[in-house]
Every structure is written in structure tokens, then in C-alpha cells.
Amino acid sequence: MTVFNTAFLLLLSLFSSSLAFVPVRPVLAKSSATTIMSASPVYSDPDQPARFAKAKEDKNQRFLDITTVYDPSFLKGKRVAITGANRGIGLALAKELVEAGGELVAIVRSSSEELEALKPTDIVTGIDVSNDEQCEAIASKIKGGPIDILINNAGYFMEECETLDNLNFSEQMKTIDICACGPLRVSASLIKGGLIKEGSKIIMITSQGGSVTWRTTQNPDGKDYGHHMSKAAANMMSVLLAQEVKEKGIMVGVFHPGFNKTGMTAKYKEIWEVEGAVDASCGAKRIFYETGHLSMESSGKFINCEDGLEIPW
Asked: Is 193 exposed, middle or buried (0-12, 13-18, 19+ CB in 10 A)?
């Protein structure tokens, strides 16, 4: 063998051996990247008519008929406190709960015949959620023990559309006080009173109207200042509360209940059908469906009860 051939074989051997030390990109890195990407939230569509039309096109039964996926059995025996349970979506929630075998604790300004007919375990009347003293006393007026689920439903919506021509700052402050501070007052009373414990759930009924990101789509001309500011404030409050109580093992759901046909939305009744508004009884089932699926992992997330997807802040 020539010197040249010997040298060539030696170099080839060294090169082949060095391949064993060439770093190979681990599959784990690619997998991790994929996991991170897939964990990004899939948001609901901000265009309400388009969202409803797409659901019909796709025959999305989760959206179009919540009864196809909703199982209320988890409510049996649960003690559920509902603010504003005397009418609207609050009354619908109360009816759904009682029908499912749950114990209703109604927290209201005043009762109603329909509410009384449900025979609640407790009715705490005389509660204005914008009143500090009245809210602080709620826990002491509930006699049946801890609450499994608290649904902060009481709200307020100025009937007249608010523009620069009719700005009503006192109404704005009233709306923010009821819709954002009110749920915090009620929640604080029950938490500090020892009625909300580890494993309990606090549900905040807010609105897609609180999404700043969605305003350019849903309010291209602005307006309705007080309503939208109050819902954005309610969302912020809800996330902060979720952060504070997570060490206690308490979950906080931040829910847009969907477009419901109630007295509060009656000023929009001309668009009820095109935007997929539903009866309050359907809205109640949607809320309870998401309540049942709420976990520590999803606590503090902003969820659209129509399709179960997140709404951007």
C-alpha cells in the first residue's frame, strides 16, 4: 500500500469517527416548540353576525344547541349563590339550578313571585351591590353553610345609547360601581366570611363588551362609554381576584354569557335574530356548562360561553 493510500485511509477513519460527536438537534426541542405553539389560545370571532353564521354553516351544535353537550348532573346537591336571581338571566340560572337538584341561595335587592316559587334555601334581600355596608353583611345572613359556586350576575346597563352629545358621567360611575366593584364586594364578603373555600368557584358574568381588542370591530363608531368601561374594569378585577385567591384553591371564571334575550338587551332586539341571541334559559345552560368545566388551569381566563373559546382582553 502506498504512503498516499495509507494517509487517505487514516484521514477517512478520523473523519468517520468525528461524526459520532456531531450534535444532533433533539426531537424534544422540536416537540417543545410545537407544544408551545399549540398552547396559544384560539380566540372567538369578534364579528357577532359572522360568528353566528359560521356556527350555522359548520352545524356547530356546541354553539347552536347547548343541550347536546350540557350535563347538569354536577349541580346536584351544590350550594349556589346567585346575585340578581329575581329576574333575567339570574332568574334563568336559578331555575336551571333548582331543576338540576342544586340548592339556591338568592342574593337580591328584592324578591319576586317567580323567585319565591323556586323555594330557595336562602333568600338574602335588601342587597344593593353598590352599597358597602349591605354587601359586607351578606355572609352573616347566609345560614346554610359554605357556598360551592358564587355567580356574580347583578348588573346595570344605561338604556340610552351614550355618545359625546349625551355623556352622563354619573351614569358611567354608577355602571362601573355596580358591574365592576359590586361583584368584588359580594365575593369579598363571602370569602372573608368563610363561605368560599378551597375548591369553590366564583363566576363573573361580564361581557365581550369589556374586550378592548374587539372594540374596533364591534364598536367601529365608538359610543356606549359607561357600559364598555364597566365591563373592562370588571374583567381587570376578575383577573386580579383570580390571582389573589389561587393559593386558596378558589377558581374564578370570567364569562361572556353570550347574547341573551333579556330586558337588559331589549334595546338591541332588532338584531337579536341576525346575531344569534338566545332565550335566557339557553344562556343559563351555557353559563353552567362553562362553570362545570372551570379549573385552576382556566381560572382567570376570559371565556365566550357561546363557543367556549377565549376572548382577547
From this structure: middle
